[in-house]
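It is worth pausing here to work through a concrete case rather than discussing structure prediction in the abstract. The textbook approach is simple: state the sequence, then state the predicted structure, then interpret. We follow exactly that order.
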Amino acid sequence: MKKIVVLGGSGFVGRHVCEALNKLGWHVTVATRRPPARAVQTLPFVDVVKADVHNNADLNALITGHDAVINLVAILHGNAESFEKNHHQLPSRIAKTCIDHQVHRLIQVSALGADLHAPSMYLQSKAKGEIALHDFSALGLECTIVRPSVIFGLDDAFINLFAKLQKWAPVMPLAGAHAQFQPVWVQDVAHAIVYALQNPSTTHQTYELCGPDIFTLKQLVEIAGIWTQHPRWVIPLPDAIARIQAQAMQWLPGPPLMSQDNLDSMRVPNIAGGQLPNITQLGVAHPTPLTSIFV
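Step two, the predicted structure:
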């Protein structure tokens, strides 16, 4: 397996996946609609292609002639239509395109807590995408699904967001303060994905990717403040006020910081259920603690 398409390869996780594949000397095609990070462009075995993965002609051109596809495309904010488009319809179209071009290997990055009966559109749409891929297995698709918890790293958009907010905010009123997470290091996620590509035994399996420790959102925000030497008083908000805050944030300029659907997702503990194989079965014997990176 030498030629890999990485959809969503210009994002935070994608950059680390591309670096891991590049170290193996594998040729990687990254599809993006915007200029990718310089770190991706300068990798010697990575070819960056301007393409719209939602365009059938572009998707066909991307996948033709490759050995495998890694799908990292995801959105955290949106309406029912946008979640459906990115998390359900796109994986289904990717799977069909793979079958049409005899590309049988696919790694799908889903989400911990994906469930048709989950309280959020995000988690429901992720579950629909998984089901769509299972339906293609009878046609020869060899798919591995990974479900990460929140992914952290020095260049993430999660811990860094709360770190930046605490540089100027005198206090931190926090929606979903008691929500639970089991953060997983981005390098461990990249290693797990590459391991899955290299090991056919992972085909038709779903894995939970979690770190060793469980934190509340409040604890994670406090760690972010300590890391940047700007610790603030974190004030948990009652659910009713949290929803007003989330609704207001949806209308602020720039990327949303919080949405009603995010709050709905956080009603489900974002921690390993223990019923599925985990990251240690994807070559990560000792998942990296968050506190070893953000100290």
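Step three, interpretation. The longest strand covers residues 142-148. The two ends are 38 Å apart (CA to CA).
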